[in-house]
Amino acid sequence: MTILSGLRLTECAAFIAGPFATMSLAALGAEVIRIDPLEGGLDYHRWPVTAAGRSLYWAGLNKGKKSVSIDLRAPEGRELAQAIITAPGEDAGLFITNFPATGWLDFEKLKALRGDLIMANILGNRDGSTALDYTVNCAVGFPAVTGTPGDPKPTNHVLPAWDLLCGMTAATGLLAAERHRRKHGVGQLLKIALSDIALAVVGDLGFIAEVQINGDARERHGNHIFGAFGHDFETRDGRRIMVAAVSLGQWKTLCKATGIGEAVTALERAQGLDMSREGDRFAARDALAQLLTPWFVARTLAEAAASLDAEKACWGLYQSFSQLVNEDPRCSSASGLFAPVDHPGIGATLTPRSPIDFTACEPLPPGVGPHLGQHTDEVLLNVLKLSSGQVAALHDKGIVGGSVRA
Amino acid sequence: MTILSGLRLTECAAFIAGPFATMSLAALGAEVIRIDPLEGGLDYHRWPVTAAGRSLYWAGLNKGKKSVSIDLRAPEGRELAQAIITAPGEDAGLFITNFPATGWLDFEKLKALRGDLIMANILGNRDGSTALDYTVNCAVGFPAVTGTPGDPKPTNHVLPAWDLLCGMTAATGLLAAERHRRKHGVGQLLKIALSDIALAVVGDLGFIAEVQINGDARERHGNHIFGAFGHDFETRDGRRIMVAAVSLGQWKTLCKATGIGEAVTALERAQGLDMSREGDRFAARDALAQLLTPWFVARTLAEAAASLDAEKACWGLYQSFSQLVNEDPRCSSASGLFAPVDHPGIGATLTPRSPIDFTACEPLPPGVGPHLGQHTDEVLLNVLKLSSGQVAALHDKGIVGGSVRA
Predict the structure, then answer these.
(1) Taking the mean position of all CA atoms in its chain, how far away is CA B320?
(2) Which of A14, A151, A393, B109 is the S-S candidate for A42 at Cβ 3.0 to 4.6 Å?
(3) Distance CA B193, CA B170 (A)
(4) In sequence order, which residues have a C-beta less than 8 Å from that of residue A193 and are 6 or more positions away?
(5) Structure confidence by residue, pLDDT tens digits, B343-396
(6) Hey, are the CB atoms on A204 and B160 less than 8 Å from each other?
(7) Rounded average pLDDT over B256-279
(8) How far from chain centre, in Å, is Cα B57?
(9) Nearest in space to A343 (alpha carbons), one of A28, A56, A31, A17
(10) Nearest-CA residue of chain B relative to A174?
């Protein structure tokens, strides 16, 4: 038994937030049915793609799901999708979409088919207008403080952090609503706006209070960690290391490993600072980085790593994606997180399972990225209890797709 | 009634992941008890701080929680903390920590006090070694592809994205485990490593497959959106706009709003590309950006915004944190997400509630950042059912703190 065995969710979504939410729940054992149009959703060809045009992104974000393809322009196709979304079952009747919740996806219409439906609608902005990770991130301030100090241009970060956090927030919200339904018997509509996810975090982390209470806003500090000490250093063999001394313990181990203790004491006296205070470490960040630079320049990565590890200092190695995949043991089958999985039409890739270990439940192996429509027949037969004749008729009429190819 | 009314969690954690997990659940109505040492936890002074040294970060990440302070070096204090963590109640007995789960925080020891305890242990790495957001992020590849193309140095992003995602993943895991306990009567230990969160995402988004299947890794593309079209542009009045054309619909609205349709057709003919394909838009990104630049340079922000909005093109405005707070209506009390909240010792700041709207439940107003130990007495009296005499004795012995100041 896996932790979410028995739970069933349906998804009509594209790109990251919605698909990531359900992929994460599928990795915990939930049955997730993703419904797409016959030609695939908006994200079906999203880059990166293989030489043959298969989307590696789509495979990754939909692994472990059941893929159903339906002609969603046809009224009969829409009714079929509505029937899957609202199919009976104590542990079913959960639905997520990032499409406008209007027309055949209107909550009240779906609720008429299943009174206790739980539906999560992911929006761009709270008012229903469009927003993407890129257009939210620029607005909430982070590109202005990312990158080289003095550069007047904003630096976008590449990780779609808001989409991912929005998806996982939706997963939390769906489980909270399912708990509420079990206790009180009622379903409901959840609304989650991508921009609200980012705005809330800006508040949670103190950036808004910094403007309102302190009267100033965060500046651009390059690769320095704000409010403590942390920076990147190049080693003799041209590798780069990020060291972090946020807590006092981390600061002490860094000083011990690199032997800068006496120089730090001299610096403290000269500048009237106390480096046991994180704020003072931040104030002296450039001087501290200068103290540490010769130590790293004089050592290879292996030498620096050995000394840092001997004192349990906190550091990380900068790696490209290739180096991560080819050189980091955490990114391998040996780690326990990954296994090689053969994704049809793509090939074998190192694929992650859920990053949560539940000690009382079996871990589910990493999921397979399905063919578009691979599970159409299975879902029509098992969830909607259609006969094989009815399923064949839907194929003949072109209302459903997939499965035949699978 | 709020969505998580009645649920009770205890937290012994610091910094972002653990505190963010429980703060998010507190915002949904769960009772969250954060236990700290008498002098405050490792993050009690984390920057940004007020002129008087109060941490805006701590207030933000602990708002809506009950703060209990205990001498956690004293055996009697540890027993008290264990009693709070394992206190009875059908909806209680959930615990989160990012400290080593050894000694008095050993799962088996706690389980002996409450057989169905659910405990989430957030780790740095799966093997228990230390890792922070900064030391994970450098290793998983993103700094190598963030920032100006051609720059050989890595660019750290400023958002602690992995911490936040780890926290929300823990929240999802806790609710999944609580569901399992309700169904099957058993608790369990959850383990979640920060580096696994990042490694799994690198797999989910196709970066690992890109290396293994395509034999190459992502390059640095500056502020271009990978695999489609999106870039930043400066307006006549010196503002910056991020435009995104990921879907075909977004591309069409962008062309219409800016009138580049004919030039795009000419470019397609000249280069043998079809800009209705997202990959071709990416291939022609520099030429497309050049086509668009004069349009933005010729317009003020207001003029560009009016034209883009008229066609419902997808765009966002770059803002500093100050501009966000002072100029963006989404970051105001009018939005529905925020309200001004007076945090004791800090003052009134615009504070977010949960970004999830549950239509069947009341929203909880934004929480207040507590004084350290503000709720010590309340928790001892109500959760542990101690007498006021017993509580007074604990204060006299210096085993507990707070409350008196509150």
Answers:
(1) 19
(2) A14
(3) 10
(4) A122, A123, A124, A125, A126, A131, B355
(5) 999 999 999 999 999 999 989 999 999 999 999 999 999 999 999 999 999 999
(6) no
(7) 97
(8) 12
(9) A56
(10) B172
DSSP readout, B52-85? T--BHHHHHHTTTPEEEEE-TTSHHHHHHHHHHH
Q: How many CA atoms lie within 13 A of B145 on its CB side?
A: 21
Cα dihedral A198, A199, A205, A208, rounded to 10, equals 150
Q: In angstroms, rounded to a whole number, what is the distance separating the alpha carbons of residues B36 and B31?
A: 16
Mean pLDDT lowest among A207-211, A401-405, B157-161, B194-198: A401-405
Q: Residue B356 in contact with residue A121, Cβ under 8 Å?
A: no
| Sign of the dihedral through C-alpha A202, A203, A206, A208 | positive
Closest C-alpha to B69, from B54, B48, B84: B84
Average pLDDT, integer, range A9-23? 98
What is the rounded distance in angstroms from the CA atom of residue A393 to the CA atom of residue A383?
17
Dist. CA A241–CA A235, nearest whole Å:
8
Nearest to A229 by CA among A264, A205, A204, A203: A264
**How many residues does the structure list for chain B?**
406
Task: Tell me the per-residue pLDDT of A195-204, one tens digit each, with 9 for 90 and over.
Answer: 999 999 999 9
B45 vs B58: CA distance, rounded Å: 7
Mean pLDDT score of chain B: 97
Element (H, E) at B164: helix B161-184
Residue type, A77: G
For residue A392, give how far its alpha carbon lies from the nearest alpha carbon of chain B (Å): 33
Question: Is the Cβ–Cβ distance between A68 and A101 less than 8 Å?
Answer: no
Q: Which amino acid is at B7?
A: L
Q: Give residues 372 to 401 of A whose Cβ lies within 8 Å of B.
A: none
From the centroid of its chain, how far is CA A229? 27
Distance from CA of A143 to the nearest CA of B (A): 8
CA distances from B326 to A209, B239, B255, B302, B338 (A): 12, 16, 32, 17, 14
Confidence at A1, pLDDT banded by 50, 70, 90: confident
Query: CA dist A300 to A261, A311, A320, Å?
Result: 21, 17, 18
CA dihedral B240, A57, A190, A171 (to 10 degrees): -120
Judged by CB atoms closer than 8 Å, whether chains meet at B199 and A338 is answered as: yes
The ipTM (two decimal places) reads 0.98
Is residue B64 a contact partner of residue B395, using CB atoms and an 8 Å limit? no
Token output for A401: 């797709």
β-sheet bridge partners, residue B232: B242
Residues near B2 by Cβ (< 8 Å), separated by ≥ 6?
A: B28, B29, B358, B361, B362, B363, B364
State the virtual CA torsion across A153, A158, A161, A162 in degrees, nearest 10.
60
Which helix or strand (DSSP H or E) is residue A119 part of?
A: strand A118-123
DSSP string, A284-333: THHHHHHHHHHHHHTS-HHHHHHHHHHTT--EEE---HHHHHHH-TTSSG
Q: Residue A151, SS3?
A: coil
Mutation pick from B252, B321, B327, B359 vs chain A, by most beta carbons of A within 10 Å, is B321
CA atoms of B315 and A141, how far apart (whole Å)? 15
Question: Residue A406: pLDDT above 90?
Answer: no
- The answer to whether A166 touches B315, Cβ cutoff 8 Å, is no
Quick one: which of A290, A212, A228, A284 has its CA closest to A258? Answer: A290
Contact B139 A347 (CB under 8 A): no
DSSP string, B20-55: HHHHHHHTTT-EEEEEEETT--TTTTPSSB-TT--B
Q: Which amino acid is at A116?
A: D
- Sign, CA torsion B352/B355/B359/B362: negative
Minimal Cα–Cα distance from A82 to chain B, Å? 21
- Does B405 score more than 50 pLDDT? no
